Every structure is written in C-alpha cells, then in structure tokens.
C-alpha cells in the first residue's frame, strides 16, 4: 500500500491590496543597490507595544515568509508572522498623507495616534 502525500498551498500571512503591491513595485524601482525586497516587521515601540515597520532588505533571513508580487519580493519577519496572520496591508494616499494601512484582526488595541498596537 502506498501513501500519497498531498501538499496544499498555504495562504500568505498578509494579504496585499493592489495599491500595496503597486507601492512595493514603486519602492523596488528606486531601491538602493543590493536590495532584494521590502520587509514588514513588528518591532517593539510606541505606547501600545508593537509597531508596523516596512524597510528595504538586502538579504533573506531564514524564517522570513516570502511573498512574490508583480513588482518585487515582499518579506514578513519570521518573528512577526504570528502577530500578522490574516491581516490586509493597503497603501492609502490623500491630499495630506500617504502610507501603508493595516487591517489586523489580531490587534486587540492601538494607541491614539495609530503608531502602535497590542495583541
């Protein structure tokens, strides 16, 4: 009797909207030499504990989640994945501000300025 193993594709931890994917493409088009992608992490800072940080990366870390987008590679810090599973990342611009916006079902609260969140 042979046992067949089926590998099911796992959904990405974070869903990127088309606007977020376009912003990643724009960032990669102007990235410094040696950049391999853009990385999302959740460093400890702000009044609520964790913050969202998006930065250029020049090397892949062992436990990072990797998402291929049309404009470049998007990484999620391996230590941050549990805080971000099921989140949606969008890019929003208006007359006064522009930035990534996160809809995170894991966030239990956030500070008044929106800089940080708790899980």
Automatic annotation (TrEMBL):
<dbReference type="GO" id="GO:0051537">
    <property type="term" value="F:2 iron, 2 sulfur cluster binding"/>
</dbReference>
<dbReference type="GO" id="GO:0005737">
    <property type="term" value="C:cytoplasm"/>
</dbReference>
<dbReference type="InterPro" id="IPR035903">
    <property type="entry name" value="HesB-like_dom_sf"/>
</dbReference>
<dbReference type="InterPro" id="IPR050322">
    <property type="entry name" value="Fe-S_cluster_asmbl/transfer"/>
</dbReference>
<protein>
    <submittedName>
        <fullName>Iron-sulfur cluster assembly accessory protein</fullName>
    </submittedName>
</protein>
<dbReference type="InterPro" id="IPR016092">
    <property type="entry name" value="ATAP"/>
</dbReference>
<dbReference type="Pfam" id="PF01521">
    <property type="entry name" value="Fe-S_biosyn"/>
</dbReference>
<feature type="domain" description="Core">
    <location>
        <begin position="16"/>
        <end position="115"/>
    </location>
</feature>
<dbReference type="InterPro" id="IPR017870">
    <property type="entry name" value="FeS_cluster_insertion_CS"/>
</dbReference>
<dbReference type="InterPro" id="IPR000361">
    <property type="entry name" value="ATAP_core_dom"/>
</dbReference>
<comment type="similarity">
    <text>Belongs to the HesB/IscA family.</text>
</comment>
<dbReference type="GO" id="GO:0016226">
    <property type="term" value="P:iron-sulfur cluster assembly"/>
</dbReference>
């Amino acid at each position: 009797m042979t046992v067949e193993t089926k590998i099911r594709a796992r959904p990405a931890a974070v869903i990127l909207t088309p606007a977020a994917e376009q912003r990643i493409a724009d960032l990669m088009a102007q990235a410094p030499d040696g950049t391999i992608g853009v990385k999302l992490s959740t460093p400890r800072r702000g009044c609520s504990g964790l913050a969202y940080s998006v930065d250029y990366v020049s090397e892949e870390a062992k436990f990072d989640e990797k998402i291929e987008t049309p404009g470049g590679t998007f990484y999620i810090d391996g230590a941050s994945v549990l805080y971000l599973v099921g989140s949606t990342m969008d890019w929003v611009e208006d007359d006064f501000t522009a930035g990534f916006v996160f809809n995170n079902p894991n966030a239990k609260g956030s500070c008044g300025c929106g800089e940080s969140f708790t899980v």
